[in-house]
Structures are given as C-alpha cells and as structure tokens.
Amino acid sequence: MKVLRKFIDKQKPHFEKGGKFQKFHSAFDSVETLFFVPDKVTTSGSHIRDAVDMKRTMIVVFIALLPALFFGMWNIGYQHFLSLGGPTDHWTMFFYGFLKMLPIIIVTYGVGLGLEIVFAQIRNHDVNEGFFVSGLLIPMIVPPETPLWQIAVAVAFAVVFGKEVFGGSGMNIVNPALTARAFLFFAYPSEMSGDKVWISEMADTFSGATPLGDALVGNFDTMPSAYEMFIGIMPGSVGETSVLMILIGAIILLATGVANWRIMFSVFAGGYIMGLLFNLWGLNEYMRMDAMNHLLLGGFAFGAVFMATDPVTAAQTKNGMYIYGFLIGIIAILIRVFNPAYPEGVMLSILLMNVFAPLIDHYVIESNIKKRLKRMKLVLKN
Amino acid sequence: MSTTFVIKKGLDIKLLGCAEKTVVDLNAERFAIKPPNFLGCFPKVLVKEGDYVKAGTPLFYDKYRDNIVFTAPVSGKVEALKRGAKRRLLEIIIDSDGKNEAIDFGSSNINNLKKEDVVDKMLKSGVWPIMRQRPYSVIANPNDAPKAIFVAAYDTSPLAPDFDLIVHGQGEAFQSGLDVLTKLTEGTVHLNVDAAKTTSKVFLNSQNVQINTFSGPHPSGNVSVHISKIDPINKGDVIWYLYPQDVLTLGKLFMHGKYDSTRVIAFGGSEVKNPKYFKTFIGASIKNMISGNVTDGDNRFISGNVLTGDKIEKDGFVGFYDSLVTVIPEGKHHEFIGWLLPGFSKFSFSRTFPSWLTPNKKYRLDTNMHGGTRAYVMTGKFEKVFPFNIYPLQLIKAVLVEDIDLMENLGIYEIDHEDFALCEVIDTSKTEIQSIIRKGLDLMRLEMS
Question: Which domain covers residue A163, as residue numbers?
Fold first, then answer.
C-alpha cells in the first residue's frame, strides 16, 4: 500500500491545477479514490462523519447481484447445451456463459464509465459511483447474443440522455439500466424479443421461447412448474430467471438497509393482487394462470428487487413508496396479460412509474403541508 | 407531572472520553468574547487595547440592535482585538486580573419586578445575550412577547455535560432565575428534563414552571424537539430559550446585582488523558485544560460537542454558549480500499459496516470525511434520526433552491441547524447540511424582517 500511495502522491501534482494533465483530473481522482479513501477532514458542521459513503453502498448492491449473475452465467451454458442435445458438466456450462457475458460486461463498463469520466471532467466534479451498479445491471437484462455495438450504443444513450443531461447521478428521472434496455427494445426489436434470442447459439429446431412468451400466445403445454420457476432453469436474461438467487440478493439489500423494503413489498403485493383480479375475470387461460406464477416468471422479481428500489428514481417519501411500488406491480402484470406486443411489462411499468414518482411525492408532501397550515388556522381561531 | 414524551427516532453516538464527575478550578488567565458566536450580530466595538474593564463593562454592541450590549465576563485589561478577513472582529481578549471585580447593577425583589425592569437590567448588564429565540436561534428581541420560554435541563449530544452535576447546590439561584423568567412572558416557562438522567432536586423541585419529561436518544435534548411536542411553533410565533447555566447567571444578577459569568465546563474526548469538569467563567482560554492532559499528535479542539461545536485552536477560548470542550484526533490519512474492507473498528449508522452488531461500543472517532461529496442519492435515511413531523431531505432541497414558500410550508420555522446534525453525520453523500440549513434560516430571517 505504501508503494502505491507514494506512486500516486508523486503523480498527483501533474493532474492538479497547473499540471500537465490537468484536463484528466477527474479520471485520475476516480482511480485514486478507488484505491484510497480520501484524506479530507471535516471543515464545517459536524466534526465526525459516518464511515459509509456512496462507494460502500454501491459495492453492497454489486455483491447482492453476484448470486444471480453467476447462476445466470451457468444457465446460459445449460440452455445452450440443452438445445444441442444434452447438458455437460457444470464448469463447462458455467464458463460458456462466463465467456458469453464477459465481452458484454466489458463493453458496458467501458462505454459507460468512459462517458461518465468525460462528463465529470467537463463539469469539474468527481466521477460519481452510480454507474458501478448500472454497469452490471445492463448485461443482466439483455439477451446473451446481443451484438456488442448495439450494447455500446444503448449504454451511451442511457448514460447521456438517461442521466447526464439531467445533471448526473442523483438527478436522473428514469432508471439508467432500464433506459438502455428500452432503447434496445424499441430500436432493434427483432434482436430483443421472440423465441430466437434467449438461448445462446441454439440449434434451429429448438424452441427458445421463454415461458412468458409462450403464455402470451396461449401455449401452456411447456410451462415450467412453480419449483422450476423459483430455481430458474429456463430461457431468459441472465438476471431474471432465478427467483432464488434474486431472493438472496434481496436479503443482502434489506439486511444492510441499502434498499427500502416498502418498495419491494409493494411491487410484489401489487403484482399478486393484479394476478388475483385476473384470476377472477378469467377470460382466457393466461388470466387464469396462478397469480403466484406472475411473481416468479420473467423479470418481475428482478425488477422489483434491483430496479424499482433505485432510490434516485423511486418515490422518496414513505407513503409515496407504497403507492409507487403498488402501481408498478399492477401495471406490470396488466401490460403482460393484455398487450400482445409486450410479453414482459416490468421494464415499461417501472419506467412509467419513475416519471410519476415526483408527482406521487408531491401529493404526499402536500398532505404534510396541509396539516401544518391546519394547525396554524386552529391557533388563529382560538 | 405529565406523561413522558418518548422520542423514538435519533442516534446516541457513544464516544470515548466522557468527563469524570469531578470539578476543579481552571484558574484561566485569559478570557475572550467572540462576536461570531452571536448569529446575525454586527459588532461595533466600545473598548480599545489597554482599557481596564470590570465584569459587566460593555465591550461591543450590535450595530442593528444597539440596545443589545455585550459585556466583559471578568475584570482585567483588554489585551487584544483579534480580527480576521475583511477586518471582521473575531475575538476580544481580556487579560484577567484575578480579582473579578464587577459593576453593581443593584439587586432586586424579584416578586415586584415588571417585564420592563427585567429587560432593562438584563440589557444594561450584558446578560441579555443568554436569551435566544426560535425561530432563527438569534439573540431574542427585547420588544417581542414570546408565547413561552423553554429551559432544557439535560443534553443528549455525544459526551454531553451533566447539568445535574453543574447546578448542584445552587437551588436558590436557579429558582430565582426561573422566577425572573416568569416575568418575561405571559405564557408558560417550561423546564424539560430527562426521565432517567435528571435526578437533581434543583430541577425536579422547581416552582412556577411546567416540568416536562422526555426520554429517547439524541436529539431528544434539543429545544426544537421539546417545542414540537409541547407548544409547536407556527408562522409568526416566537419562543425564547436558554440553558441551566444561563438561568443561574440570570438568578444571580437579580439576587446580587452583579454579572456572575461562572461556568462549569466539561472537558472530554478520546484524546483527553483525564477528562473532568473545570470551574471558570464565560470565554475561558483552554490552555490550562489541555496542558499535560491531551495526547500528542494532530488533534481537533472543539468548543462544544462534536456535532455542532466550533473548531478552536490550541490557544483558543470556550464559546459564549458552550458548556463542553471536546478533543478528538484529526483524520488526515488515506485508507487502502476502505470502502471495500469489512471495517470492524469503524462506526456507521448504516448496516453496511459491522458496527451495528456492537451497539454499546464506545468509539475513538476522528475528523475524516470517509468519502467525497456527491449528489443526494439515498432516501429514507434522514427520517430515521429526525424526530419531527417534517420531511428533512425535501426541506434541505427547498433551501438549496431558495424556494421561500416551500421552506415555510415544510416547517423551516420549527427547526434549527443543530437538529440536522445527525442527518449530516449519517449522510452518505457527505454534504454540508447544517451549513445549508443555516443559510436557509438566515434567508427566512431577512425575508421576514
């Protein structure tokens, strides 16, 4: 550590004001603070500070994503070999998926962080840690065979128009990872949905439809059992299939207090209740499907735990979070069952509620303001 | 006796170096009054270097409220007028002659006093600045009619001084002070005590006041919390507040006619070898407190507590309103990938570090920021240490955009920047929340005047 510290200290003057590489100060600073916590001391207000910072919070989310990531990598391999004839040993299948995911992860982080550093330098800020997590989320929600150039374009779009134009991390209105996904969905639809994209390099004769895709066309013959849905051995994006792995991630997020339980709980509640309502209506076999399956299938659990809980884009008041989460659950299932163009509704539902979250907060705060004014009026009357 | 108000939200930060319950004389030789201690005050100096003063001799007055004078706490010679940037007056330093001669303002029969008499004597003797007001926490306006007066008899901040110990044996002076306070308002004088910690009969046997009991973690000792539970402030209301040692000074002024600025100051912190209480006067130099009593190394000396106190130098002076001096280590060091390592010795309110598993552990915390400043990202955290019916993050943002109407509607009159101290401590984005709120309060004060 001392050697590294001395090296950094020697190079630092070059990147400060007046140094040769002054233009790259933000990039240097982001690397320095990656290795060393800054030695800044308090200068105003409280003299002591909590040990937690954004890096600590982000690394917790990163760790919470790892179980789903590693399972998903194995699952890609499993689905690929299944389509060819039969699965082989687990390590081969895992490394197949790992090697498929690695380029996507590298491109996502490379383009995303590169753009973040450029914007930070232009604004003369520190590089924010927001993309730490988004950079892992995006590879986990795209089909494994997505061309890398498409991913690069989508990440650039999400970082620039989904985040930076609003002011960077903490100022964005919509979830950046979902913005990238939505961009891919609407710009390159044929590569994003259907039954050919979710299994990597599969044989032409194999059906690669996800259970949700099947359900939308009324094909319930190959619907997995609830147990299979929970474990997640079925076609789908890397992050979404295994509810078990997502649950482990949810426990990590809740135990450390990084994600808010109100949002997670409300999303699941809303989705389940919408499923029950459809059960009551029972117009077609999709509606009659067990409401619990809606929570286990597709990106619902992943969206509820990792996307909807993004604190910047979600509702920020306690009561607002209940309303926000509940509506996400309701609308996600609504889109799924009713709309023939979208087998998955979670992404669009979360993006929609991201836009409405400030409005929900506004009305929650209005009620607080009204209580305060009422108290004042009572006093004036007496 | 009414029921206990239980405060559920908050955080007790347990630090090493709590002062032992022994009181020794400080025998300080130099004292200072610091105009920056008085919010919103523009000092106009009345003395010059070399002048001889007694306790009660005016040193300076407030340019915009010239009836409010600030007087010398002890007798002696004016040693220096220390100025800072743009000739801002920072300190008026007095070399004490040890005799403590005081101007006689005449004792009074407290029962016969009228409000004007009380105000008059407090202003002339320089005792008036002990009375502060909410909203804005500035020195009270003598022409106002406050709807109540609040006295907080206990302090919940980290390493807080024990007021039970400080007022011990001074029941007569304390009661006299309370009686004087009753003359200043048509409303009630409230004495707020802690259910478990306050045991002194000086407090519990007080007459002519309403005693309210509270319990809970910091900030349950803050005046804003007491006010919010007992007599909430609405727009246009004024409440005056002061603390036990101020009440003693007030009582003694009317009993003996002299400005008695005696203070018992707690001296604590992880870097103090023998933390204890020192008996001295307002504005004492900390030199005798720290000599031979503080560990070597880069230390931060704080007049007040670690949450709201002011940074002072080794040769600095205790602030006018402070009853505590804290010494903690500076934190100018780098830590290799500190955000990734488990961090067993670190303190955090969040559960991302293992400190939540040992809630009774006492910490030696330094002044390191533990990260860089960011935009606000995390939500729902401030509410856990903010026991008010106010949305903290939304109020902070309203102040940042200077939206006066929104600040008013969200309750800016009901709080002070000290109430946001815990929010500032646990803030993941490392912003300067107390400074922001202070600017907001000053903005409101200018708008409404």
Answer: 54-367
